[in-house]
Structures are given as C-alpha cells and as structure tokens.
Amino acid sequence: PFLALCLSFSFPFPVGANRIRKDCEREISEMAKALSRGTLVKRYLTFASGLLECVGFSGIIFGWTSLVFVLKRERYFDGLCPARNQSAGDPGRNETVSCAEQDERFALIFTLASFTTNFVSLPNGLLLDICGTSLTRVVGITVYTLSTLMVALSSAATAYLLFPALCFTAFGGIVFLITNIQVGNLFGEKRSTVITIYNGAFDSSSIVFLIVKVLYEAGLSIRSMFLFISSLSILHILRTIFLLPRRTIPYPLPQAYEYGLTCKYSETGERENISGEVDREQQDTKQELIKDSVQNGDNEEDFPDFRSCVRSSLFFTNCFWLSLMQLRHYLFMGTLNPMLSLLALGDTNLVSKFTNAFAITQLCGIFFAPWNGLLMDRNKKKSRREMSPPAPLATQRVEDLRAMVLSLAVTVGQCVAFSLSASIPRLELQYLTFILQVINRSFIYGGHAAFIATVFPSTHFGKVFGLSMSISALISLLQYPCFALVKGPLHNDPLYLNISFVVLSALTFVHPLNVHLHCRKKMKSLPKPPPSPLVLSAGEGEQLSSRETDI
Q1: Number of helical H runs and strand E runs in the chain
Q2: Which value, in Å, is the radius of gyration of the alpha carbons in the chain?
Q3: CA distances (Å), origin 103, targets 70, 106, 132, 337, 497
Q4: Letter string b/e over residues 244-280, b meaning 16 or more CB atoms within 10 A of that residue's CB
Q5: CB within 8 Å of 75: residues ≥ 6 apart
Q6: 300: phi > 0 → left, psi -120 to 50 → alpha, else beta; which?
C-alpha cells in the first residue's frame, strides 16, 4: 500500500494508481495465503518428525527382551552362572548360556530402567513448565547420547555399565515423549488423536532393539550399532532449533501462533523474538483461559492450582489405574525371556522365534493407539453436537471428560483379557498374549496422557503428568520382588501370581466409575444454560397462533 501511494503521485491519471494499488493488494493477499500454507506445512512437518523421533528413540528400552538375547550371546554377566564357570571352552557367538542368577541381574537392570522412565517424568515435567522446551530437550539429548555411548563402549568385562546406560536411555526417551505430546495442541479437535499416536509410537520404538538383534545375527557388532545411534543426536538438535518452540505450545492455540527459528517483524518495524514466539504468546496461558472463560460465564475457580489438581479424586484414581496396569506390563516384559525359555524347554531357536514375534507385535502399537484417540474425539464431537445452543466452557470441559469414560473402561477390559491369556502356560497361546499386550499398552499410555491433558489446565500438564508417572514408577519397583517370588517360593511357576494380577486389573474399573460419577455431580452443580431465543415457550406459541388467527 505504501508503494501504491507513492506511485499514485507519479501517474497523471488515477486509473494507473488504482491499477497499481489493486496489484499490490492482490500480491499482499497471495503472500498471506502462502504464509498460511507455510504454517500448515510446518505444523505437519513438526508432527511427522516428532513421530519418527518417538518411534526411533523414545521407548527403546521396552525392546529389552531382544537386547537381552544379544547380551547373553556376548556373555554379559556370564560369570554369575556357576555351571559356566566350571565348564571349559567358549560358548561362541551363536550359543546362549543362561542361569537364574544371570536372569535376575538382567531383570534388575530392566526394573531400574523402567522405574527411571516414569520417575524422572516429574523433574522433566517441572523443567518443561519452568524452563521451556528447548532447555529440556538439550538436557535430554545430552543424557541420551551419553547412554548410547556407554552401551557402545561396554563389554562382558564392564557389564556394570548397563545399569547407568539403560537408566540414561530411559531418561532421554521420556524427554522426547513429553516434549512431543504438546504438539497435539497445534491440531485443535484432533488433539487427543495426535497425543495417542505419539504414545503409540513410544510403544512401537521397542522395534529398535529387534533391529539390533537381527543386525547382530547378520554380523554387525553392538559397538558399531550404538555408535551410529549416538551420531543421530544431531537430528534431535536440528529439530529442537527449527521445529519446536523455545517455551511451550499453549492450548487453546492463540491466533497466528508461530514457533521455531523464524525472523519476523512487527507492525512497528521492530524485530521480534528470533524463536518466533510473540511476547503475548509467552505469557501465562492460564490467565488467557481465565479471561476467556469469564467472558463466557465461567468461574475462575474452574482453573485450579497445582495443589488442587493433585488432591482431586480424579488424580488419585488415575494413578491407581495407571500404576497397577503398568506393573502388570512391566512384569510381563521383564520376565518374558526366562518364561519363554521355560515354556520352550530351553530350545534357543524357539526362544529367538518368539522373541522376534513379540518385538514385531510391539511395532503395531503405533497403529492401535490412534483408535483410542479417535474413540475419545468421536465422543467429544458427539456430545458437543448435542449441546444446542453452544454451552459455556465449563460445561464443555465436563462433557469432554465424560467422553473419556468409555475409553478408560475399554482399557481396563483389555488388561483383564491380557492377564488371563498370560496366565495360561501354553507356548502357542503367547501369540495371542503378545497381541493383547500391545493393544492394551498403547491404550494405557495414550489414554493417560489424553486424560491429563483434558482434565487439568495446560499450565500444569508437565507437573501433573510427571507426578503421576513418578508415583507409578514407585509401584513398578514391585516387579523385582515379584520376580524373586516366582524364582524362589513359587519354584518358577507364576500361575498364582498371574491370577492375582487378573483380580488387581479388574479393580482398576474404579477409575472410569469415579470419572462417571464426577461428571454427573459436576453437571448437576453447573447452572442451566439460558434457553435459545429461537425456541418459543408453550404460552408464547399459543399467543402467536391466536394472533395469526385474528389476522
């Protein structure tokens, strides 16, 4: 427009100035559309790159069964086996030596690593809420790279390096997941679906250790493979700089929200933050939500502080729901290798076959997890369509929470079915157990993250999510005593333990029941929305009919 104004004084006829002005306006409109398309492309690129990051790096420790197979071939903790110390000769690369003491040591490593995955979620969540995405990821990338280097430099003589290495791997992996979950805020109504997809990718990342196992059998060394994984950290750094915000992604998303490394100028010509985040977008999202809600007739009490969040009954039942089902899955994965050895009567080829089958089914988590998100989003849309006229934000939040009851109940039913299948000591039945396990696991973590994001304010997401995961981590420490119980008093027969977990899994139905009762109580306490002006009462309808008759 400034260029058109200047040129209008140069042309003797107003027609030329109008033509130039229209050309300038058209060009500006095309630039705005291109900017909008560029923002959309950037968001989808952020989603796709985050998906690859979660699949390739975030939850690789849950492919532990495949890595244990390789570590046994490399004779890690081989000195704990009395029979091996008394025998002569080298077992070789294609033979596996195992004993109860060695299995217990590997189970202890997995127990500590899985504990770390959840327990460090609280400090990571605090770091994310206070310091932002960039600093949190720098810490996570550094620790993750150190962990892969430690595995690469370890050997049978330095097998103790596996303890800190796997714990560091778990630490870095959960950082990748937590910082990617917020990407769902970029996609509005598809938020729950995106969150569950990322959690499914977290489950599917166990395929990485299967690839390590297959490449190891093809002749590659552990050192070369883990050095290659370490070198990929440069991709994490580039993504942190260009495709993620310096702080956090707010929800609801402000208009014209930008993130990543961009250089833009405000209307006054002053250069804005190089991270692309305008100052008003870095303000506390809680205050923006409160302001919007007050305008829609909601109360400020509807946005609780962190202490109120963790004291709520929904938080307690959610922790109970998550902790028990997670303990069941951790115990199953941590004891899978010795269980397969027992059911296969020591046949190494059968153990390898079923280990590969388990790892392959874990890859399917990324395909099962979105169904949970789609189920939640579908119920949310259905409840909002039924609200006419549009209800206040407080009512919408209650309806969104009610839409999650079905998903939570289905997840519990899956866990009970998985526990029943795992209780039957038949080797061929383990294929069904693997399928039920990966479906249920993808529903658990995706549903948990979506539940926290729906129930509690986004400003407390990192802290509430981290605290719930930390509590579940403390409960997960019980897997090692359970493993010792099976090896000792139960004489390698886990039947009674499995039956106990069937009962415990059924008890987690208390969480969806509590959510349902909470929603019903909330709906009764909320004020009734005013009737639509388009809807006439019965008396008004009769008066209108009489007037029409008189006319």
Answers
A1: 26, 0
A2: 28
A3: 13, 5, 40, 8, 18
A4: bbbbbbbbebeeebbbbeeeeeeeeeeeebebbbbee
A5: 91, 97, 156
A6: alpha
126-130 contacts at long range (C-beta below 8 A, 24 or more positions apart): 126/462, 126/463, 126/466, 127/462, 128/178, 128/179, 128/248, 128/462, 129/248, 129/459, 129/460, 129/461, 129/462, 129/463
Q: What is the pLDDT of residue 376?
A: 81
Q: Peptide bond before 512: cis, by omega within 30 degrees of 0? A: no
The DSSP element (H or E) to which 266 belongs, if any, is none
Peptide bond into 530 cis (omega under 30): no
Please report the pLDDT score of residue 547 as a whole number: 43
Contact in structure between 442 and 86 (CB atoms under 8 Å): no
Looking at residue 497, its pLDDT comes to 85
Query: Which residue has tokens 């209108």?
Result: 544
Mean pLDDT by 10 residues, the chain (551 residues): 39 50 56 63 92 92 88 88 56 58 86 87 85 93 96 92 94 92 85 84 88 92 95 94 88 78 44 42 44 45 73 92 91 82 83 87 83 79 64 70 88 94 89 92 85 82 84 87 81 80 93 91 71 46 45 42
* Residue among 264, 278, 335 nearest 65 (CA): 335
Q: Which two tokens stand for residue 322?
A: 């998550």
The pair of structure tokens assigned to 156 is 């049978």
Instruction: Please give the pLDDT value at position 375.
Output: 82
